[in-house]
Amino acid sequence: MAAVLYIVVPCYNEQEVLPITAPMFLQKIKDLAAAGKISDESRVLFVNDGSRDRTWEIISALAEEDEHYIGISQSRNRGHQNAVLAGLMEAKDRCDITISIDCDGQDDINAMDKMVDEYLGGCEVVYGVRESRDTDTFFKRATAQGFYKFLSAMGAEVVYNHADYRLISSRVLQEFANFKEVNLFLRGMIPLVGFKSTCVGYSRAERIAGESHYPLKKMLALAVDGITSLSVKPLHMITGFGVLVAFASFIGVIWAIVTALMGKTVAGWASTTCIVCFVSGVQLICLGIIGEYIGKIYMETKQRPRYIISERTWEKKK
Ligand code: UDP
Ligand code: MG
Questions:
Q1: CA distances from 149 to 159, 210, 236, 241 (A)
Q2: Interval between CA 94 and ligand 2 midpoint (Å)
């Protein structure tokens, strides 16, 4: 029997773009089913991430219109990563494969054909990788590429130029369900599950309508989450740096004693101030980095639910 595919689409305030892209996802399912690659039981699963606009109404209307559209709604906005996770976990017991994709039409829907082919060829995870960023603004391109370089320098291994457009089999998702952390960085966590994987290239287009929800501030937050959830390299770097500073201080102390013994002590106000400023600055940065990890431990110990689904289109309210 052909595989059942669920296309998982997180949506946050997407009333402008959803009516345009939803039929494109549906058409893709119909085409793939007609080609005999997937089952007609396949679905487009929208995850409403606590939108404040008409997104959920649109999703509910789509679900009425065609059985291939289904939707779940999170009880409030929890962010893109949690929305994707909610969709994947909801889908994992109902299908054979999932493909997560943004709802703004930026990711080339036609790359799904190649992804499904790779799955049929034996891969359990297929990463969508951007081949060109010609349509991104210079700023977005530079910051996004800096993001991947910074992540790998800090010891967080991610697939270069891969965002969250990927195919995952339900077999991998069953294993992934055992990763209980609340600090989510899916693109770094999925490779940890293992299984046979490959990459499929696509070119990234501009948003069809609406606005980006990933300004620089959120991207920096995602980078910090990625690093702290995947790697303890910053802590090692602090230790290494601490050893260097301690060594320099040791030499400084010897120098101070020797000059004092030689009777050459002069009022060294400037040098003292510089050293105090430098060392206290370094200490504060180090404390901050350690604090980031403690904050993450704090969040993990609470074990709060990572998503709460308040509504499903197939469970009608009484
Ligand atoms: N998104 C979400 N919750 C949020 C922010 C974004 O579910 O809090 C969804 C959004 O609807 C879109 C995807 O995540 O489908 C990517 O967001 P966006 O296109 O704004 O980011 P960009 O492509 O500019 O990085
Ligand atoms: Mg986008």
A1: 11, 29, 19, 21
A2: 27
Q: List % helix, strand, coil for the chain (3-state, nearest 5).
A: 50, 15, 35
**Does 49 contact ligand 1 (Cβ within 6 A)?**
yes
| Centre of ligand 1 from the C-alpha of residue 264, in Å | 65
Region 6-14: mean pLDDT is 95
**Cα-to-centroid distance, 301 and ligand 2 (Å):** 32
Supply 99's token pair: 């493909």
Longest dimension (CA), the chain: 92
Strands (E), the chain: 5-11, 43-48, 69-74, 97-100, 125-130, 162-169, 197-202, 309-312
Question: Mind giving me the DSSP string for 27-92?
Answer: HHHHHHHHTTSB-TT-EEEEEE-S-SSSHHHHHHHHHHH-TTEEEEEESS---HHHHHHHHHHHHT
Return all residues near 84 (Cβ < 8 A) that are at least 6 apart: 8, 10, 47, 100, 164, 186
Q: Which residue's CA lies nearest to atom 1 of ligand 1? A: 80
Classify residue 310 by its DSSP letter: E
Global pTM value:
0.77
pLDDT exceeds 70 at position 266: no
Nearest CA, atom 5, ligand 1: 80
- CA triple 224-229-231, angle to 5 deg: 90
Mutate to test the pocket of ligand 1, among 49, 102, 204, 207 (most ligand atoms within 8 A of CB): 102
| Alpha carbon of 10 to ligand 2 centroid (Å) | 11
At residue 132, does pLDDT exceed 80? no
Residue 133 binned pLDDT confidence (cut-offs 50, 70, 90): low
In this prediction, residue 280 has a pLDDT band, given cuts at 50, 70 and 90, of confident
